[in-house]
Amino acid sequence: MSDDVSDVITPFADGVRISVRAKPGSARTRDIKVVDIGDGERAVEISVAAAAQDGKANKALIARLAEEWGVPRKMVSIKAGETGRLKLVEIHGNPAVLARSIAEKLKTSL
């Protein structure tokens, strides 16, 4: 697998968008990593212990991303896929700084 993670991080005017595959109800927290999701597509896989019920897993996912990537929770939101495992997450802030910082952290998990 290439150590280029630009296919899962998309800068936009107010921050970056990240393709995410959530794994709710995990017995334990695992490392955040980039995985193949089929058809040549990849996403950031994130496991959380919270069940996919009443938005609990989404809240846990946002909290985990904010903590792992050093941004305030209020800067992280789910833009698409709230009820599915595949999600599009937006992180608001300086797009260049966020993309570089997140890419570096993801590369250590490859």
Characterize the structure shown:
This protein has 110 residues and is α+β, with helices and mostly antiparallel strands. It has helices at 56-69, 95-107; strands spanning 9-12, 15-23, 33-38, 41-47, 76-80, 86-92. Strands 1, 2, 3, 4, 5 and 6 form a six-stranded mixed beta sheet that branches.
Explain briefly what this protein structure is.
With 110 residues, the chain is of the alpha+beta class.
Topology:
Blueprint: E1 9-12, E2 15-23, E3 33-38, E4 41-47, H1 56-69, E5 76-80, E6 86-92, H2 95-107
Parallel strand pairs: 2-4
Antiparallel strand pairs: 1-2, 2-6, 3-4, 5-6
Index terms:
110 residues; alpha+beta; Conserved Hypothetical Protein Mth637, Chain: A; 6-stranded mixed beta sheet
Strand content: 25-35%
Low-pLDDT stretches: none
CATH domain topology: Conserved Hypothetical Protein Mth637, Chain: A
CATH architecture name: 2-Layer Sandwich
What about the largest sheet? 6 strands, mixed
The portion of residues assigned to helices is 10-25%
